[in-house]
Amino acid sequence: MLKIASLVILHVFGCYSVRRLKEAYWEPISPQIIISEINKLDNVVLGPDDFSLSSVPSPRNAICHMQPDPTSSEKVSGFVAFKQREPNQRLGSCLSLHGFDTKASKSKNRKHGFHIHEYGDVSGGCGSTGGHFNPTGATHGGPGDKERHFGDLGNLIHDDDGNVFQSFVDGLISLYGIHSIIGRALVVHELEDDLGRPGDPGSLTTGNAGARLACCVIGFTTEEMVDNSC
Ligand SMILES: [Cu+2]
Ligand SMILES: [Zn+2]
Protein backbone atom coordinates (compact mmCIF):
# COMPACT_ATOMS: atom_id res chain seq x y z
CA MET A 1 0.00 0.00 0.00
CA LEU A 2 2.81 2.34 1.00
CA LYS A 3 4.67 1.41 -2.19
CA ILE A 4 1.66 2.27 -4.39
CA ALA A 5 1.15 5.58 -2.57
CA SER A 6 4.79 6.60 -3.06
CA LEU A 7 4.62 5.66 -6.76
CA VAL A 8 1.53 7.86 -7.22
CA ILE A 9 3.25 10.77 -5.45
CA LEU A 10 6.39 10.35 -7.60
CA HIS A 11 4.30 10.23 -10.79
CA VAL A 12 2.34 13.37 -9.92
CA PHE A 13 5.48 15.27 -8.91
CA GLY A 14 7.30 14.10 -12.06
CA CYS A 15 4.51 15.29 -14.38
CA TYR A 16 4.37 18.61 -12.54
CA SER A 17 8.14 19.14 -12.88
CA VAL A 18 8.09 18.33 -16.60
CA ARG A 19 5.16 20.70 -17.11
CA ARG A 20 6.97 23.49 -15.24
CA LEU A 21 10.07 22.94 -17.41
CA LYS A 22 7.99 23.02 -20.57
CA GLU A 23 6.26 26.21 -19.47
CA ALA A 24 9.55 27.86 -18.64
CA TYR A 25 11.61 26.93 -21.70
CA TRP A 26 9.37 25.75 -24.51
CA GLU A 27 6.77 28.47 -24.79
CA PRO A 28 6.15 29.05 -28.51
CA ILE A 29 7.27 32.52 -29.65
CA SER A 30 5.11 34.43 -32.09
CA PRO A 31 6.81 34.94 -35.50
CA GLN A 32 5.40 38.50 -35.63
CA ILE A 33 7.20 39.42 -32.41
CA ILE A 34 10.46 37.97 -33.70
CA ILE A 35 10.25 39.77 -37.06
CA SER A 36 9.65 43.13 -35.35
CA GLU A 37 12.62 42.48 -33.07
CA ILE A 38 14.77 41.66 -36.11
CA ASN A 39 13.79 44.98 -37.67
CA LYS A 40 14.84 46.86 -34.55
CA LEU A 41 18.08 45.07 -33.78
CA ASP A 42 21.09 44.07 -35.79
CA ASN A 43 21.63 40.85 -33.97
CA VAL A 44 18.82 39.04 -32.23
CA VAL A 45 19.49 36.71 -29.37
CA LEU A 46 16.20 35.05 -28.66
CA GLY A 47 16.27 34.01 -25.05
CA PRO A 48 19.07 32.59 -22.93
CA ASP A 49 21.50 29.90 -23.99
CA ASP A 50 20.48 26.31 -23.82
CA PHE A 51 21.94 24.74 -20.65
CA SER A 52 24.44 22.77 -22.74
CA LEU A 53 25.92 26.00 -24.18
CA SER A 54 25.82 28.27 -21.14
CA SER A 55 29.34 27.44 -19.94
CA VAL A 56 31.00 28.32 -23.28
CA PRO A 57 32.91 31.63 -22.85
CA SER A 58 33.18 34.61 -25.22
CA PRO A 59 34.37 35.04 -27.87
CA ARG A 60 32.81 31.96 -29.39
CA ASN A 61 34.44 30.13 -32.29
CA ALA A 62 32.95 27.42 -34.47
CA ILE A 63 33.94 25.34 -37.48
CA CYS A 64 32.28 23.08 -40.04
CA HIS A 65 34.36 20.59 -42.09
CA MET A 66 32.60 20.22 -45.43
CA GLN A 67 32.30 16.73 -46.94
CA PRO A 68 30.84 15.80 -50.36
CA ASP A 69 27.47 14.09 -50.38
CA PRO A 70 28.03 10.40 -51.29
CA THR A 71 25.72 10.75 -54.32
CA SER A 72 27.39 13.88 -55.72
CA SER A 73 29.81 13.82 -58.66
CA GLU A 74 31.21 17.20 -57.56
CA LYS A 75 33.54 16.44 -54.65
CA VAL A 76 33.27 19.68 -52.69
CA SER A 77 35.20 19.87 -49.41
CA GLY A 78 36.94 22.41 -47.17
CA PHE A 79 35.90 24.38 -44.10
CA VAL A 80 33.67 27.20 -42.92
CA ALA A 81 34.78 29.01 -39.74
CA PHE A 82 32.74 31.35 -37.51
CA LYS A 83 33.61 33.87 -34.82
CA GLN A 84 31.36 36.01 -32.63
CA ARG A 85 32.79 38.24 -29.89
CA GLU A 86 29.63 38.86 -27.86
CA PRO A 87 25.95 37.88 -28.08
CA ASN A 88 24.96 41.33 -29.37
CA GLN A 89 27.67 41.51 -32.04
CA ARG A 90 27.48 40.27 -35.60
CA LEU A 91 28.72 36.83 -36.53
CA GLY A 92 31.78 36.80 -38.80
CA SER A 93 32.66 33.91 -41.07
CA CYS A 94 35.40 32.88 -43.47
CA LEU A 95 35.32 29.88 -45.75
CA SER A 96 37.61 27.94 -48.04
CA LEU A 97 36.04 25.30 -50.28
CA HIS A 98 37.35 23.44 -53.30
CA GLY A 99 36.32 20.69 -55.72
CA PHE A 100 33.56 22.49 -57.65
CA ASP A 101 33.40 21.00 -61.13
CA THR A 102 34.23 23.93 -63.44
CA LYS A 103 33.29 22.10 -66.66
CA ALA A 104 30.26 20.04 -65.76
CA SER A 105 28.74 22.60 -63.38
CA LYS A 106 25.04 23.05 -64.00
CA SER A 107 25.07 26.35 -62.16
CA LYS A 108 24.89 29.51 -64.23
CA ASN A 109 27.30 32.22 -63.05
CA ARG A 110 29.15 29.62 -60.94
CA LYS A 111 26.80 30.40 -58.08
CA HIS A 112 25.80 27.79 -55.54
CA GLY A 113 23.07 28.13 -52.90
CA PHE A 114 24.45 28.06 -49.37
CA HIS A 115 22.26 27.47 -46.33
CA ILE A 116 22.07 26.38 -42.73
CA HIS A 117 19.73 23.41 -42.53
CA GLU A 118 17.74 22.42 -39.48
CA TYR A 119 19.35 19.13 -38.43
CA GLY A 120 22.98 18.32 -37.76
CA ASP A 121 22.33 14.77 -38.93
CA VAL A 122 24.40 13.54 -41.90
CA SER A 123 23.67 9.83 -41.35
CA GLY A 124 21.87 9.68 -44.71
CA GLY A 125 24.26 12.10 -46.44
CA CYS A 126 23.15 15.70 -46.82
CA GLY A 127 19.58 14.49 -47.40
CA SER A 128 19.03 13.95 -43.66
CA THR A 129 19.76 17.56 -42.64
CA GLY A 130 16.11 18.62 -43.08
CA GLY A 131 14.97 21.91 -44.59
CA HIS A 132 16.34 25.42 -44.13
CA PHE A 133 16.83 26.46 -40.47
CA ASN A 134 13.68 28.53 -39.98
CA PRO A 135 12.68 28.98 -36.32
CA THR A 136 10.43 31.97 -37.07
CA GLY A 137 8.27 30.38 -39.80
CA ALA A 138 9.41 32.96 -42.40
CA THR A 139 9.50 32.49 -46.20
CA HIS A 140 12.75 31.93 -48.08
CA GLY A 141 14.86 34.97 -48.99
CA GLY A 142 18.38 36.31 -49.32
CA PRO A 143 20.81 37.17 -46.51
CA GLY A 144 20.07 40.92 -46.78
CA ASP A 145 16.27 40.52 -46.64
CA LYS A 146 14.12 41.23 -43.59
CA GLU A 147 11.91 38.26 -44.48
CA ARG A 148 14.22 35.24 -44.70
CA HIS A 149 14.97 31.94 -43.08
CA PHE A 150 17.71 32.14 -40.45
CA GLY A 151 19.54 29.65 -42.68
CA ASP A 152 19.47 31.76 -45.86
CA LEU A 153 23.10 32.67 -46.54
CA GLY A 154 22.68 33.36 -50.28
CA ASN A 155 25.19 32.08 -52.83
CA LEU A 156 28.84 31.09 -53.01
CA ILE A 157 30.70 31.84 -56.27
CA HIS A 158 33.49 29.51 -57.34
CA ASP A 159 36.52 30.68 -59.35
CA ASP A 160 38.12 29.25 -62.55
CA ASP A 161 39.74 26.47 -60.55
CA GLY A 162 36.60 25.41 -58.69
CA ASN A 163 37.58 27.11 -55.42
CA VAL A 164 35.70 29.50 -53.15
CA PHE A 165 37.46 31.84 -50.71
CA GLN A 166 34.93 34.14 -49.15
CA SER A 167 34.15 35.91 -45.91
CA PHE A 168 30.86 37.33 -44.71
CA VAL A 169 29.15 38.90 -41.74
CA ASP A 170 25.58 38.11 -40.74
CA GLY A 171 23.45 40.03 -38.25
CA LEU A 172 20.78 37.36 -37.79
CA ILE A 173 22.45 34.02 -37.13
CA SER A 174 24.35 33.59 -33.87
CA LEU A 175 26.55 31.29 -31.81
CA TYR A 176 24.51 32.37 -28.75
CA GLY A 177 20.92 31.99 -27.61
CA ILE A 178 18.18 29.47 -28.14
CA HIS A 179 18.41 29.80 -31.93
CA SER A 180 22.16 29.25 -32.03
CA ILE A 181 23.45 27.56 -35.20
CA ILE A 182 25.65 25.16 -33.19
CA GLY A 183 24.81 21.54 -34.01
CA ARG A 184 23.02 22.40 -37.24
CA ALA A 185 24.23 21.69 -40.79
CA LEU A 186 25.68 23.84 -43.56
CA VAL A 187 24.71 22.71 -47.08
CA VAL A 188 26.18 23.70 -50.46
CA HIS A 189 23.85 23.24 -53.44
CA GLU A 190 24.27 22.38 -57.10
CA LEU A 191 22.42 25.44 -58.44
CA GLU A 192 22.11 29.15 -57.82
CA ASP A 193 19.71 30.19 -55.04
CA ASP A 194 17.11 32.54 -56.60
CA LEU A 195 16.66 34.22 -53.15
CA GLY A 196 12.88 33.89 -53.36
CA ARG A 197 12.60 36.51 -56.11
CA PRO A 198 10.55 34.56 -58.72
CA GLY A 199 7.98 33.80 -56.02
CA ASP A 200 7.01 30.29 -57.14
CA PRO A 201 6.50 27.66 -54.40
CA GLY A 202 10.03 26.22 -54.82
CA SER A 203 11.51 29.70 -54.75
CA LEU A 204 9.73 30.57 -51.50
CA THR A 205 10.91 27.42 -49.70
CA THR A 206 14.32 26.42 -51.11
CA GLY A 207 15.32 29.09 -53.65
CA ASN A 208 15.28 26.31 -56.30
CA ALA A 209 18.91 25.59 -55.44
CA GLY A 210 18.77 21.95 -56.58
CA ALA A 211 20.69 18.95 -55.27
CA ARG A 212 22.87 18.97 -52.16
CA LEU A 213 26.56 18.77 -53.18
CA ALA A 214 28.18 18.84 -49.74
CA CYS A 215 27.40 19.42 -46.08
CA CYS A 216 28.84 19.52 -42.57
CA VAL A 217 27.80 19.93 -38.94
CA ILE A 218 28.68 23.19 -37.13
CA GLY A 219 30.50 22.71 -33.80
CA PHE A 220 32.45 24.85 -31.34
CA THR A 221 36.22 24.99 -31.73
CA THR A 222 39.21 26.92 -30.35
CA GLU A 223 40.05 30.54 -31.12
CA GLU A 224 43.44 29.35 -32.52
CA MET A 225 41.69 27.07 -35.02
CA VAL A 226 39.54 29.91 -36.39
CA ASP A 227 42.30 32.56 -36.31
CA ASN A 228 44.74 30.25 -38.10
CA SER A 229 42.14 29.19 -40.69
CA CYS A 230 40.92 32.66 -41.66
CU1 LIG B 1 19.97 24.28 -48.61
ZN1 LIG C 1 15.65 29.37 -47.04
TrEMBL record:
State whether keyword Lyase applies: no
Q: Which reaction does it catalyse?
A: 2 superoxide + 2 H(+) = H2O2 + O2
**One function term, GO molecular function aspect:** superoxide dismutase activity
Q: Which interval of the chain is the signal sequence?
A: 1-17
InterPro entries, A to Z: SOD-like_Cu/Zn_dom_sf, SOD_Cu/Zn_/chaperone, SOD_Cu/Zn_BS, SOD_Cu_Zn_dom
Broadest EC class assigned to this enzyme: oxidoreductase
- Recite the UniProt cofactor note for this protein: Binds 1 zinc ion per subunit.
Residue ranges of domain Superoxide dismutase copper/zinc binding in the record: 76-218
Q: Which UniProt keywords apply?
A: Copper, Metal-binding, Oxidoreductase, Signal, Zinc
Q: Which cofactor does it need?
A: Zn(2+); Cu cation
Entry's EC annotation:
1.15.1.1
Record-linked SUPFAM superfamilies: Cu,Zn superoxide dismutase-like
One Pfam family in the UniProt entry: Sod_Cu
Q: Which domain of life is it from?
A: Eukaryota
Q: What does this protein do?
A: Destroys radicals which are normally produced within the cells and which are toxic to biological systems.
Q: What family does the database annotate?
A: Belongs to the Cu-Zn superoxide dismutase family.
Q: What is this protein called?
A: Superoxide dismutase [Cu-Zn]
Native organism taxonomy: Eukaryota, Metazoa, Spiralia, Lophotrochozoa, Mollusca
